[in-house]
Every structure is written in structure tokens, then in C-alpha cells.
Amino acid sequence: PDAMPMSKTLFERARKVMPGGNTRTTVFVDPFPIYASKGEGCKVWDVDGNVYYDCINNFTSMIHGYTQPDVAAAVVDQLPFGTAFGAPTVSEIELAELLVERLPSVDQIRFANSGTEGVMMAIKAARAFTGRPKIVKIEGAYHGSYDFAEVSLDSSPADWGDLPNSTPYARGTPRGVLDDVIAVPFNDIEALRAVFAAQGDRIAGVLIDPMPNRAGLIPARQEYLQAMVEIAHAAGALVIFDEVISFRLGWSGAQGLWDIKPDLTALGKIIGGGFPVGAVGGRAEIMAVFDPTRGKPALPHGGTFTANPVTMRAGLAAMRALTRESFAHLDRLGAYLRKGVAASLGKHGLPGQCVGLGSLFKVHFTSHPVTDYRSVYPGQAERRKLDAFHKGLLGRGVLSASYGLFALSTPMTEADANKILQAIDETLSDIARQF
Ligand code: PMP
Questions:
Q1: In angstroms, rounded to a whole number, what is the distance separating the alpha carbons of residues 122 and 120?
Q2: Which of 67, 119, 373, 394 is the most buried (most CB within 10 A)?
Q3: In 48-188, where does DSSP find H-type helix?
């Protein structure tokens, strides 16, 4: 905190006009967050002039880091022509074409302004298409802030039975919302089968992030996803993949790596090139619920800034720059860092593990097997270690998420990775001495 006087002052100013000085819970850090002033490549600077390797990249969205030349040029080129119209533009067709080409499960796509909206439109499309009310979701998995997607996001041990209950995340969540969401344990085929056996004809769809970040960043098992598709389809329900984060795992996202074709896919983050974005895509037959050409659609959907040409052009440039070589580079960097972090934990005798895939990894300060939400629910000691880890890294010039998530970017080199590993090693050494 001593090296961040300007951030501290700004936070005090913010407190007067924003609750807790905050407009985004995820970026709050106790006692105050650093205020960013600029980004370039894989680094960010705060208002006090401190520089950091950015290992969170606006919560996984800035896959090229900052000021990627093609993305910057696309935005600058659009500005003199206007930024948002009450009419479609050619840019949305181009980005839709690119995404449809990369995702074999997606015939058609609709844009939105956030991942939250992408997930919301996917859930609503599943309901409109099937005429059923219920959604199945994984306990502890985060999908943005649509009420139905938030159920059982943060259940506490007091609520844990053998099987997850539908628990509210936000105070004030209506009972009806809880009634229409069934939470299930992750990677558990039998539990899914049981839920469908009991309520299959009321279920519109299963919502799953193939590598749910808040539920541990553990990949779904391929057999689990395969069984999910079979079980859901046998009951006339749909499978919705939330690839808002996991689309950064490969050319065709996680569904490409796992070779699964969901019925609907929610997207966001990287597809906007650093601008607000979300999307839902899927089979044409399902996406027809949005079609207004034959009168009022089953599912009307608007959005004043939806598919604005700045977001669309930035997204198109970012996605074009994301080549197969980019993914190979990110995979190599990620594997190198995961191995380095695990070695460092071992060297300092700390119970812990480094999980993830591709450009994403997460540190858990626990030695028991990490399998699902419950297994990563942090006790007090782990919470204190995570906090010390986050702050220790910040003090050594590495920005990560306060809950231990890291997301890499294409401009990062192996030399950068070594500097990051050194900061991680020093921080873990401190933690081993402290706890
Ligand atoms: N789904 C997942 C898996 C996410 O991680 C997020 C955001 N972190 C969302 C949906 C919501 O996206 P947004 O913040 O753009 O609304």
C-alpha cells in the first residue's frame, strides 16, 4: 500500500460516489484496489507508476494484452464513421461468419453486450425452444449475473446435503427462481441421470462451463459431457455450453478440444477485442426462436448497443489475430508456468496444486484432490494464503485475480514467464515462512 498513494486517494474519492468505492465486485481488493492508468503488450501500469505483468487480462478477456496493433487500428478506423446506429452494419455479419466457421456446433449467432446476456439469451432460447421451465446447472459454477444462472454459485457448507440444494447467491432472489434451477455436482453422471429421471420432462436445458473457474478450474471429463448430451437429448432437453471464458482454450473453444457439440453456446470476453460483448450461438433450428421475419419471434431480443461496429470490428481484428500458432504459443506458456508453479509449491513444502489448461491456471492451497466446488471451498487458512499470494504478487509486479486465477496473453514471452515464475517463487517462499 505504501507504493500506491495515488490509488489510495482515488479509492477514498470513489467511496463518496460509489458503494464501497466500487462498481464491479470482482475488482475490489481490501483495503483498496490499484487504479490502472495504461496497458501495453502484456503489462499494465497503475496511477502511481508501478508496472505489472498482467496475468488476469481483464478477467481473461484481453487475450492479446493491450494495444494490439490490428485491434487498435480497427477501432481508430471505425471512429470517424460513427460508433453505434439504429441499423445493422456489415461488421456484425463478418464477426458472425468468423465465429460460425470456427465453431462447428454453431450455425447461427446473436450478439449481446456481455457474457451475462449471452448466457441469459441461451437459457431463454432453451426455454422458448422446449416450452419447459427448468435449468440444470453445476454447483459453484459462475455464469454472470442473470438470476437463474447464479443459483448455488456460492453455497456454504451449512447448506450442503449429499446433493446440492438450490441456494440463492444474492439476497432477494425469488423463490420461483430457485424452484426452476436444479444444481448438480460436477462431473457426476449418475447424479445427472437421477435428476433427469425425476424431472426430465420439465427441464429445458443443462448449462455447463466445460472448465468452471469458480468451481475449481478443473476440466469436465469428456465422458461426462458425452453422457450429458445423451441424457439431455433423450429427455428432449438441450445442452448449453458457457464458453465465455473457455473459448480462449483453442481454435474451436473447449468444445473443440473435447469434441462435443452442444446445442447452444454462450460467448463473450475475447470475441469483443476488449470491448463489451456477449453472444449466443447454436443450431439453426433452435436459433429460429429469435427470427423476426415471420411476425413476433418466440424470443424477442434487442439491446441498444448490441453488435455496435466498434465492438464488432475490434472483435473481428482480435479473432483474426488469434491464429492456430497463437493457441500453440499460449498452450506452451501455460504448461511451462503450471509446471513451474507446481515445482515451486513443492520446493517450499507448501500443500497445494496448480490446475488449468492452455492459457489459464489457478493455484489451490490444498493437498487433497481438487474435483469440484466443495473440494475447493477455502477454509480460513487457505483464504489467508490466497490473500497473501495475491498481495505478495502485486508487490512483486504481477497482477492476478484475488482468488488465484491467472490468464495469459499472446504477447507474453518465455522470458516474461520466467519473471512471473520468479515472483511466484519468492511469494510462495514468504507464505511458507509465514504460515
Ligand atoms: N460466464 C462465465 C464463465 C464468466 O466467467 C463470466 C464473467 N467472468 C460470465 C459468464 C459473464 O460475463 P460478463 O462479465 O461479460 O457479463
A1: 5
A2: 119
A3: 57-60, 69-78, 90-102, 115-130, 147-150, 175-179
35: left (phi over 0), alpha (psi -120 to 50) or beta: beta
d(CA 146, CA 170): 11
Single-letter amino acid code for the residue at 349:
G
Domains in the chain: ranges and CATH: 5-63+323-434 (3.90.1150.10), 69-321 (3.40.640.10)
- Are 205 and 344 in contact by the 8 Å Cβ rule? The answer is no
End-to-end Cα distance, the chain: 21
**Among 398, 403, 402, 406, which residue's Cα sits nearest to residue 424?**
398
pLDDT at 367: 87
In this structure, which residue's CA is closest to atom 9 in ligand 1? 144
* Number of Cβ within a 10 Å radius of residue 3: 13
Question: Whose alpha carbon is nearest atom 13 of ligand 1?
Answer: 115
pLDDT digits over 242-264, tens only?
999 999 999 999 999 999 999 99
Whole-number Å distance, alpha carbon 81 to ligand 1 midpoint, is: 30
Q: What is the amino acid identity at position 27?
A: V
Give the active site residue among 43, 124, 137, 269.
269
β-partners of residue 183 are 137
Q: What are the DSSP calls for 316-336, one per residue?
A: HHHHHH--HHHHHHHHHHHHH
Q: For the segment 165-202, what is each residue's pLDDT rounded down to a tens digit?
A: 999 999 999 999 999 999 999 999 999 999 999 999 99
Mutate to test the pocket of ligand 1, among 23, 26, 142, 186 (most ligand atoms within 8 A of CB): 142
Determine if the pTM surpasses 0.90: yes
Q: Distances from the Cα of 392 to the Cαs of 356, 416, 424, 428, in angstroms?
A: 21, 18, 8, 9
Question: Residue 245 and residue 208: Cα distance in Å, rounded?
Answer: 12
Beta bridge partners of 36: 46
